[in-house]
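Weekly modeling sync, notes
Attendees: S.R. (lead), two postdocs, one rotation student

Agenda item 3: backlog of single-chain predictions. S.R. asked that every request posted to the team notebook include the full sequence so nobody has to chase files. The rotation student volunteered to paste the first one in as an example of the format we agreed on. Action items at the bottom.

Example entry:
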Amino acid sequence: MELPELREELHEYINQADENALKIIYEMSKEFKKEEIVGCRPDGTSITQQDLIDRVKLASQQVKAGNYITQEELEKEIENW
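Predicted structure, as returned to the notebook:
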């Protein structure tokens, strides 16, 4: 079944569905739209794909702004631990 036909058939089904079926479809739609959880932090809170994208963007901005330390600087810092 092609996408336009599928959409049309689903629209017809929704228009004829009873309240219970509509609630089920609605809940399924909400779950589908939720962000995908891709990991967990040590405190147990979830990490979404968008969280990871935001972290990469922030890290990239920090590097462009010069906010980083080199491997050599890190090794010197470790010696003082």
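Discussion: group reviewed the output briefly. The chain has two domains: 3-33, 37-79.
Action items: rotation student to repeat for the remaining queue; S.R. to check formatting next week.
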